[in-house]
Amino acid sequence: MRPECRAGPAGRADGERPVVYCTLDAKMQTRRPEDTLHDSPETGERLALAIRALASPRRYIRPWYFAYLLLGMVTAGVLPVLLPLTVEARSHELATVAYVMGAYNFGLLTSPLWGMLAERFKAYRQVFLESFLLTAAGTLGMLLLGDLPAWLAAALALGAGSGGAATLATLFVIDFAPRSEWEPRIGWLQSFNATGQVAGLMLAAAFTGGDFAAALWVCIAFLLLAVVLGGIGLPLLKPADRGAMGARHPHVHLNIRALAIFPKLNLPSGVDLHLYHLNLHGLRRLRQALGTPFGRFLLSWFALALAVAAFFSFFPLMLSESYAITARASAMIYAAVAALGIGLYVLTSPLIAWYGADRVYRAALMLRIAGFGLLLVPFVLPPVNRSLCGVAGFAVIVIAWPLLSVSGTDLAASLTPFSEGAAVGLLNAAFALATAVGIVFSGPLVARWGYATIPATALAGLVVSFWLGLHARTRRHGAPERPHGPI
Q1: 481 found inside a domain
Q2: SS3 helix, strand, coil % of the chain, rounded to 5?
Q3: Measured on CA atoms in the order 407, 411, 414, 420, is the torsion positive or negative?
Q4: Degrees to nearest 5, angle at CA 186 with 438 and 200
Q5: Rounded Cα gap, residues 429 and 145, in angstroms
């Protein structure tokens, strides 16, 4: 049974909006107005949104979306495979690989600043196109420069540019399109980016023979082409009036859980690079999360990101040297499993409706624990088939991401003591920070004790994440709904 709500007394002297009072089982509860923006969307509502987006592509897709596809090809497809190989081939130091990949991820953390800059100076088009140029400049720096400080600067620019392009892509929807079209447009954006990743991984497989310089030149060419495509069909009108939304950040108006069923990148360093997900608004709510079930889930999510960060930075090197799986094969496996995962996003929604987001989340964690367990087996039992363990473990780790992404978003929105948008923003900020920190600290460990430390530390972190996730509970199928907000 849904709670019945009525508005409290109006006309307060301090100018605040009235509180909304909700009754459930004869008890009086309170919830803030921003918590009433979304009721929990049912599975049919989520699927209806996906069908609406797929049924009218001409209405929701613009030519500049292909620039975002090219960005996914480069930053989530080609570079995650070839950048570690390039740095290791030139530096011959595994720690250097971690530092460069960590700098790239710290660059991604600047993405909210791009949105603030564009909105402050009304320079959406310029910032969007210049972010592609900055990404190309960072790639060029990785190609031409030859020492660690220069590589770190180039990787930081590469991450900042790609984060800026992702942020501005979402701003072109939120600030210019009608609110009724936000979700299908952003869903298509995410799908273009994820499709670009699959294509980029397949392209990376063609360059794993050792001609890394040629691959980086191809990336630069794609990014310059993205500058051309990115200028086609951009909105030229003034940004939409936000007066009706009040002072709240527009991401709180998005149907976060419905958006979660659209494909997202399978790589932690490229996850959810959209303004409504990675934003400063959510960071201001961190103190409110402490000591709540949402806070414990946030720690679980942080531990998950910290645990797997090293693997996704070293996987082409690790699979090649420890499991006799060539970089070409690992790229093709990644592409195939990521493509399979695109369909899994929609299928995860009914699973969550029936079993609950908490059970799906813990099941996905168990999948990753099993995957890293398979990767650790050859180090513990050397006679086993190393290649088979490597392929199976890698595939299981990657295929778990759609389950984690959708269930994690649903849990954040269900457990939050404040707005859903701020909760998911905080969730993804924690994920991005944990990824960057985890990559940097993994370098010396791998250099000192070898690749066995990656599955060993990942298993430890995932067990901690699973234990913390035991505190997350959501209602089961057919159970009565609970009110939003603190009780």
Answers
A1: no
A2: 70, 5, 25
A3: negative
A4: 55
A5: 31
The pTM for the full model equals 0.84
335 near 201, Cβ under 8 Å?
yes
CA-CA distance, 166 to 355, in Å (whole number)?
A: 33
Identity of the residue numbered 15: G
Structure tokens at 284: 């201001």
* CB contact at 8 A, 31 and 483: yes
Q: What tens digit of pLDDT does each residue of 436-452 get?
A: 899 999 999 999 999 99
Residues 23 and 61 in one domain: no
Q: How many domains does the chain have?
A: 2
Strand partners, 21: 6, 30
C-alpha 154 chain-centroid distance:
22
279 φψ region: left (φ > 0), alpha (ψ -120 to 50), beta (else):
beta
CA dihedral 294, 420, 30, 180 (to 10 degrees): -170
- Do 195 and 163 fall within a single domain? yes
Same domain, 8 and 77: no
How would residue 418 be classed by pLDDT, with cut points 50, 70 and 90? confident
216 shares a domain with 86: yes
Report d(CA 430, CA 299) in Å as an integer. Answer: 9
Is residue 474 in some structural domain? Answer: no
Structural domain boundaries enclosing 19: 4-31
In a domain, 486, yes or no: no
- What's the CA gap between 257 and 261, in Å, rounded? 7
On whether both 13 and 50 belong to a single domain, the answer is no
107-115 average pLDDT score: 84
Residues 327 and 424 in one domain: yes
Q: Hey, how many other C-beta atoms are within 10 angstroms of the C-beta on 225?
A: 14
Q: The domain that contains 215 carries what CATH number?
A: 1.20.1250.20
